[in-house]
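[job 4471] stage=fold_predict status=RUNNING
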Amino acid sequence: MAAVVWPMLMILTAITAINGRRIWPNPDATAVERRM
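[job 4471] inference complete, writing structure tokens
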């Protein structure tokens, strides 16, 4: 499972970094990480 989770997290972080933090504030990001 970890082999699948890490790439997804890296991609999501990269997308958020490119798009900017305006789309996902800190609370939303933490909620998504908790769901994952």
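[job 4471] summary: The radius of gyration is 10 Å.
[job 4471] exit 0
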